[in-house]
Amino acid sequence: MSSDNLVEEVKKTNYRIIFHIDMNCFFASCEIASHPELASRPIVIAHQDSLRKSIILTANYVARKYGIYTTMLVRDAIKCCPEVLVIEPNMEKYQYYSKIFFNYLHTITHKIEPMSIDEGFLDVTEVCEKINAIELANTIQKTLNEKYHLPCSIGIAPNKFLAKMASDMKKPLGITILRKREISTMLWPLSIQSMFGIGKKTTPKLNAIGIYTIGDLANYQDVDLLKKTIGTAMTESLIEYSHGNDTSIVQYEGNDEVASINHSTTFDYDVYQIKIMKDSLKILMNEVINRMDEKELAAYNIGIQIKYSDFHQISRSRSVPNPTNDSYLMWSIIEDLFDNLYQEEEPVRLLGVFVNRLVENHQSIKQYSLFDDFSRIEKENDVHTLLRKINNQYGNIIHIGYNKKEEKK
């Protein structure tokens, strides 16, 4: 796969050259970077407890050869390999190495979008006018591994989704190019659960209607059934992804195109109850929507942020074909992101909701088809108008609308 061909594709189609850089076994790599003598030993990062019921946060590749994996219980890992070394998480250390990682990336380009403590997107379109994309990726990977002892895998593609999928294709220390014309041979054969944007809650729903691979999704004929199964917004975005399409841009600091609105809340204590988390997300979404209404804006991209009690932080977002400030649509996306992202039984300390790729509200006209239920659309618009009036008069309320099951009573 020639990166020169990718550059030519970029010139012809106005695509970007996007890198997704994902650190390999990051927490374990940080421990090995500070204690090189651990490199040949099977190690896992997990909280120490007398019953060995804690969940493994990361396992190095030596441990994985014994069948040990992330989210496995420590006691089960010990059964697989009695010699495994269990190391208590040290978030200060991991944040230190994360800063090294991102500081180095900033020597390459300022167009960086962090995805979590150990991964991020880079728009290197302009950089690759002077250096071959593969050569640049090799330099980044070699420097991180040899100078800082932080191994990584890199995906190279014309958009963020394909770059993310490419970085997962070869680990550790992989570099993979994924171009749109290769999706039928490289992307479609992959299992549906490996697709970025699909999590543990969505996978069984798709399996139940006969979708087991990304190719199954891309070529699925009963779109109405798919919408009933996973919702309209998710159907539209995942079908676009399955065909290698992604219009989202790398959201880097200082980019005027990436205006954003966000709200977050930090809890005074560890929160385990999912209901409290979802209620908090509803309130945060309401605050975001109110600010969008005040500025007469709509968003192409909706996302959430979760920070756990061990300070591990992760954020995910989803793009929509038409910009929106619709509470029903936004909540369906936020709830689905949360259901797929939240690590069950892990205490949460911070939640956030954000929107970006904002446009003026008059640009957010939805293209309705002849098959849309116009009576439902009119009713929902009336509800949204009423909610806005109540917000203006009485302040914030939970901006999630009515429950359709209750409506029938």
Describe what this molecule looks like in 3D:
By secondary structure, the chain is α+β, with helices and mostly antiparallel strands. The chain has 3 domains: 1-187, Reverse transcriptase/Diguanylate cyclase domain (Alpha-Beta Plaits, 2-Layer Sandwich), CATH 3.30.70.270; 188-242, DNA polymerase, domain 1; 260-407, DNA polymerase, Y-family, little finger domain (Dna Ligase, domain 1), CATH 3.30.1490.100. Helices cover 41% and strands 20% of the residues. The protein is built from 16 helices and 12 strands. It has helices spanning 3-13, 26-34, 61-64, 74-80, 91-105, 133-146, 160-167, 183-187, 202-208, 214-218, 223-230, 232-242, 274-295, 327-341, 374-394, 404-407, and strands at residues 18-23, 43-45, 58-59, 85-87, 112-116, 119-123, 152-157, 175-177, 260-271, 297-308, 313-324, 348-360. A 5-stranded mixed beta sheet has the order 5-6-1-7-8. A hairpin with a 4-residue loop joins strand 10 (297-308) and strand 11. It is globular, with a radius of gyration of 22 Å. The termini are far apart.
Question: How much of the sequence is in beta strands?
Answer: 15-25%
Number of strands: 12
Which superfamily, in CATH terms, is the homologous superfamily of the largest domain?
Answer: Reverse transcriptase/Diguanylate cyclase domain
**Cα-atom radius of gyration:** 22 Å
Q: Into how many domains do the coordinates divide?
A: 3
Listing every helix as H and every strand as E from the N terminus to the C terminus, the arrangement reads HEHEEHHEHEEHEHEHHHHHEHEEHEHH
